Amino acid sequence: MVWCGKLLVFLAGLTILIDLVEPDRLRARGVRLYRRCIAVVRQRRELMEASRMVQLRRDIMHSFVRYSSVDDSAGSSVVLCGLVHSPPSAAPAPELDEGRFIAFWHAVMDDVGERFGLREKETSRRVEAAVPYIQRRVDEFLRDATATATATDGSRLVERAAAIEQRSTGFSAFFVAAACVAAMGVAYLLQDWNGPAAGGIGLVLLTVLVTLAIMPSMAPGVIGARMQRRAALSLLCVSRLLNRSRPLHPFRWAAAGCFVVGSLIDLVTSWGNPA
Q1: Whole-model pTM?
Q2: 63/270: higher pLDDT
Q3: Which of 94, 128, 100 lies closest to 112 in space, CA to CA?
């Protein structure tokens, strides 16, 4: 109890460090942090738009290409790629014109059939070869369709969405591999030390880590946007503390409270234990 009071008094005395720095310098730092906060908010808005574009690209690709899993003669699972032959009945997003999108779908399907010989014979290998061409046509369509629907330039938004998706996929693959190795090692050590029950704990840990690793691929950009939101809030709070006539003045009130409480604790403990 004695140490608690002395610690509070010591913390109250640390506020003298605030007066050693010139107020103008603190206020200037607050202005810079506020500008940085504005930049982070703008980046977060663009990242959310890019994340939305990633999902839109995926939805449109699902209108052209479908994937299915079948078992081969050896009993292993094989992923096959095929075209979606039924035309869409609506646009995948409200901001896309329905008639324009359906016309675009028919035009792309006609071009794909001629370019890659899919009218004569549709094979998984030919469809896989056509996927990059379909994705390129989808990106061109989105550049034109979203040029006026968002605050960000349509071409730059599509390019950023493609980069985010590729980066999130690569990060997830790396993290899944690292998580598997780490969790298997932990499971082995726990099983060696504490019996078979600890091995189950390691498997649960593996499942959690793999799930966290897959999340960036399931929703690219969302995690980064949430981190930037927290960074913006932190920068805003610090900038408001600095950019005022008396910088960091709330800390002086907190120091006054610590001094009063600490002094009372020190006084009571000294009174109860006279020298």
Answers
A1: 0.58
A2: 63
A3: 128
